[in-house]
Amino acid sequence: MKIPTPAEQRQTYLAQLQPHVAEPILAVGFLATPGYTAGLMKDYGIGKTIGMVSPLAGWLFRKKKVADRLAVSRNDLVAVTASSVHLFEFPKESHQFVVTGPPTVWNRNDIRVTAEAPQKLAQLIHVQFRDGRVLDYDISIGIREWKTFSDAMRDLLLAPVNA
Questions:
Q1: Is this model's pTM higher than 0.85 or not?
Q2: What single-letter DSSP state applies at residue 20?
């Protein structure tokens, strides 16, 4: 099975999401629980170190840590339109995306998004709502050609909306 390019994957996601979104989708990307990617990488490194002594123990450590992290984390495939943001939860036990329920929807006029400087594995963003509530998310930074997959989504979220 051929691994899709980022452009091909973006088109696949757009085709899956557009039937669930009333207006044209301008960008897609991913948001994750803060610390998710860094935590996975840390656990992987510790597991590899343990694996130098006992490959089975290292594998079991990594398997348990990933399962524990998945249980308390959330990844969303996000569709941004001119007026709204739609968060579709990515299935926890799958590498394939399937729409499993209605998205969380934010009106872009009701949020203000700020971003911290990108780190090695992720960029932390803060979503502030009119009521003062703030939610934090990571935008994972992929490798090679996937490094900029969520950049267009991030840039739209950071841009003010003309009301």
A1: no
A2: G
